[in-house]
Amino acid sequence: MKFIAEKLISFITTIIFVSLITFLAIQVLPGDPSLLILGTEGDPASREIIREQLGLNENIVVRYFKWIIGVFRGDLGQSIRYSVPVRDLISDALPLTLWLAFLAVILSLVISIPLGIGLAVKGGSVLDLLGSLIMQIGMSVPAFWIGILLIQLFAVKLQWLPPGGYGSFVSFILPVLALALPRAAVLTRVVRANMLDEFREDYLRTARSKGLPQGKVLYKHALRNVAISIFTVAGIHLTQLLVGTIVIEQVFSLPGLGQLLLAAVLQRDLPLVQGLVFIGAVLILTANLCFDFLIAALDPRVRFE
Amino acid sequence: MRLKKINFPLILGCLFILIVFVVTVVGFFYTPYDPNQMAIRNRFIAPSKTNLFGTDQYGRDLLSRIMVGGQTTLTVSIIAVTVGMVIGITLGAIAGYTSHAWDEFLMRIADGIYAFPSFLLALLLVTILGSGKTPIIIAIIIGNVPVFMRITRSNFLKLREMDYVMAARAIGASPWRIVFKHLLPNALGPILVQGTASFAAAILAEASLSYLGIGVQPPQASWGRMLREAQSFATLAPWTIVFPGIAIGLSVLGFNLIGDGINRYNSKD
Amino acid sequence: MKNKKALRLIVIVISLFILTVPMAAANEKVLNIAVQADPDSFDPTRSVAAATVEIAFNIYEGLVKANEYGELEAALATHWEIDPSQTVYTFYLRDAYFHNGQKVTVDDVVNAINRARDPQIGQKAGEYQAIESVYGEDNRVIVKLRAPHGPLIYEFADLAMAIYPKDAANLANQPIGTGPYKFVEWRPNQSIKLARFDEHWADAKPYFEEVNFRIIPDDHSAILNLKTGFVDLIPRLDASLLHQVEGDPRINVLAAPMNLVQLLVINNQDPILKDLRVRQAIALAIDREEIIFGAAWGNGDPIYTGLSPAMPKFYNDSLEDVYPYDPDRAKKLLAEAGYDKLEFTFYLPAQYSLHVNTGEIIAEQLNRVGIKANIEIIDWGTWLDKVYTQRDYQLSIVGLTGKLDPHAILVRYTSDSSRNFFNFDNQEYDRIIAEAIDVPDEQRVQLYRQAQKIMTENVAGVFIMDPSQLVITSKDLKGWKNYPIYVIDVAALYR
Q1: Mean pLDDT across the stretch C310-325?
Q2: Chain A from 192 to 251: CB within 8 A of any C CB
Q3: Which 208-237 residues of chain A touch chain B by CB within 8 A?
């Protein structure tokens, strides 16, 4: 119980902290949003009207509380650029980004778990060394470069797959691949290292000596411990995955959160940037909290630390 | 079996970083051509004897631009990681060696910052300060501080209870002496490993942000920006995407391998 | 057992996924167009972005409408009369219906025009101050002017003067017009969907039943989408990507002048750039041929004044040799002015790759005569703030979109214009533009040619090119109409 309470408290304080940073950072922007609304043909009088409408002339503390109260009511304000609620924009773009991230996670797990185990079983051999080197290369190459190369190969040269855009299921294959490959490389190393540790553990030796078949031993006992370590690094991965999707959406022109965020940043759409950064951070924090609980459920030691 | 004795990752990693460093540093004094000199009618010359890596869409020499682009990437990551490391270690040492109250206070803040994805922070800063190196450097520093704080603190907490530290304290050694003589040197291994990981991450971050067009501005070269500009011409001039990508990959790989090597070295002790 | 469960879960997830992702429609009556940016607002009184105009052209109509030759045609008015004093315009309203089924009334028209010219509401109200009053009589709308103002009639074709129901509430997101296509849905950052309006007054029905404007900011992906059939039309392709479509048997490429004036914008009031010799030196340092080859890949016509040759009647074609490319003379002029090393800040608008590329080449050309131009790529919002509104800049590059009448283009450079961000100040020029408002046509032509000569000789800016508009379509798409204004005429297209 104490564990859960502590985690929840730090979760909430962090969210307040994040909301403060987001709000304050945006408030010192030099650009004037009323200009963007008016474009090339505005004049000072109409600008003042717009500033009044947006509440830009109010006290900063009042504005923060107005904003944060609105957030709790599910109201993130109105996008300046698109003049629709920020919430609608985010909920429109969110599914695509979540799918992208989710599929990339699944794919990287599907690749890395068997591969990591395989390399661990062959531990120390030339094959293992070669595999490790390839994994190192895989995690060192930027995902967007992989994306560019994948487009060249599969979309331009071979013309098997669409190069991007939001057309159909198949248009997801390349971006997910570009996103998953570097992740898979990292995870393979985690799995391999953990499996090697497991092999040294007594219980595995015992199990083996009892004559349990090798495959069953591996999966039953060792995988649970590997799962714990995967979930432990998953927090860091989620953050990197979010970053990855922002860039990958750019490479493949996918209209998800990343493209929305970049457009909002470049166009100085204050409420939209605020909403996106805040929601992005909250998403990551929530996912991390879930992983914490998951690890605690799997690994009783954590709860009593 | 003899394969295992040689620390391959460390050697390879150092070799790669050495290559990148030498090429970049030479770029300060000598490049085959002026990296910004356009010769538009010589655009997209394939790699040849005159232009080893070929030329780009303005006829600029790609090798020269990669040499100079490395300066951007490396200065950004060296400044950002070093400053982040120094601040992080200092604060981590304070948290890990002084009072419990300080520890609580500093680590709460560190947790808050740590939770804030530094890439989002970079985007926020770009909106405030405009595109360029500064917001990227600041974001990487801020992202790195809590990381080094945590590592230093946890190692200090562990080492503080060691016999030889207790003994030093008992004979009345000054806190400075204890920190610099006993704690820091013994915590260095994990800090260094984190340092290489931070370098690798910083290089990737700079490349990604420049790829998004919010890093350094033209005509200044940067590997990420070169990829952004070259993407449209990938079919016409494949070398314009191949070489900058390799440059990024090689540097990141180098740091990752060094980190791996140090890890292996430490675990052998 | 566990494995089977997991497998089942994965199958369920993937099939859910396939269901939620919209499949590409293969309907031949559906047209997909790649556009670069979202519209700003569909409210005619608010909108200023070219990205809006090109879509809204199909939704809204004014009393009159421009055709592909830049001439006025009947739209909601069947015909119109201008009295001999040139101050009373009478428009005869057509029997037409709005997309919501309401009949278009004289009151709707009066309301729309009055809002457009109200400085509290209309974005372009400043341009309509010549109008004294507007009122309706039967099926006629009468517009009274304070004084003759020849160019005004063209403004009735502008989006700002579009007609909408007077009780319409949310035009910004739910436009209601009378055009051949009605608005269906806008998914910001993704797409805008229009459907054919079957009650439109025109006899001929457009071919396409549904039109999707897909927002694809990156031309590179737009091309790849065109090749895979997700998009049928790219109305304005970045010339540097032409190589990716040339020779492709599935694709048609059309090139036409855009009526866009791309120029190196110079702040004429900057302490250093105030010196005419410095501006002349800059003009002499610019090699247009190299820019057109380098940035537009040969797809553009050099221009030497603030009007595009796409307006042949008014274009002054004798200004080519005022400041030819001559770096030596440029250096001499700089020395004469007492500068051997000059440094300027050079803002480039990030959104427009043609301008950014042009800027990179110009920076290099200026470098050759000893001027250092420090490029700063800024977003459009900052550009509007710094360059356009505060006029706090030294050099920049931008494209000024075409208008139907030269007055609307040239009036920008008059010293008291709110849109004169060049800070160009020439009394002779002001006088000529004012004089040209109500004189017979031949005289107008002469005056405008003279005005162009003044702006070129005094280097109001360095005019670079009218880039070709590169229209890329799938092979089976026909009927593209090229307009001197920034629009896409969907109704003319067919397969």
Answers
A1: 91
A2: 250
A3: none
Which residue, among C149, C142, C144, has the nearest Cα to C132 in the 3D structure?
A: C144
Q: Measure C56 CA to nearest chain A CA, in Å.
A: 16
In CATH terms, C58-161 corresponds, of 3.40.190.10, 3.40.50.1000, 3.90.76.10, 2.60.40.1220, to 3.90.76.10
What backbone phi and psi angles, to 5 degrees, belong to C415? Answer: -65, -30
CB contact under 8 A, C375 and B231: no
Contacts of A140 in chain B (CB under 8 A): 200, 249-250, 252-253, 256
State the nearest Cα–Cα gap between B119 and chain A, in angstroms.
6
Consecutive H or E run containing B80: helix B62-97
Q: Which H helix or E strand runs over C469?
A: strand C461-474
A19-38 burial code (b ≥16 CB/10 A, e <16): bebbbebbeeeebbbbbbbb
User: What b/e sequence results for B125-155 when a residue is b if at least 16 CB atoms lie within 10 Å of its CB, and e otherwise?
Assistant: bbbbebbbbebbbbbbbbbbbbbbbbbbbeb
Domains (range + CATH), chain A: 16-75 (no CATH), 98-304 (1.10.3720.10)
Q: Which of A47-56, A190-199, A226-235, C291-300 tops mean pLDDT? A: C291-300
Q: In this model, does residue B115 exceed pLDDT 80? A: no
Residue in C364, C377, C382 nearest the CB of B38: C364
- Hey, CA dihedral for B36, B39, B43, B45, is it positive or negative? negative
Report chain A residues whose CB lies below 8 A from the CB of C380.
36, 266-267
Sorted by sequence, the CB contacts under 8 Å of residue C49 that are 6+ apart come out as A39, C37, C39, C40
CATH class of C26-40+173-257+469-492: alpha beta
The pLDDT of residue C19: 47
Most C CBs within 10 Å, among A103, A154, A248, A253, to test the C interface:
A253
A262 to each of A18, A256, A269, B134, C213, how far by Cα in Å? 19, 10, 10, 18, 21
Q: Which residues of B touch A22 (CB under 8 A)?
A: 124
Question: With an 8 Å Cβ cutoff, are A36 and C381 in contact?
Answer: yes
pLDDT in tens, B176-223: 888 887 788 888 888 998 999 999 999 999 999 999 888 887 778 899
Tokens of C258: 């855009």
Query: What value of ipTM does the predicted structure carry?
Result: 0.87
pLDDT in the model for residue B179: 80
Q: Which of residues 252-291 of C touch B (CB under 8 A)?
A: 290
What are the start and end residues of each CATH 3.10.105.10 domain in chain C? Answer: 260-467
Task: Return mean pLDDT, chain C.
Answer: 89
Residues of C in contact with B231 (CB under 8 A): 220
pLDDT of residue C23: 44
Query: pLDDT grade, residue A126 (50/70/90)?
Result: confident
pLDDT (0 to 100) of residue C267: 96
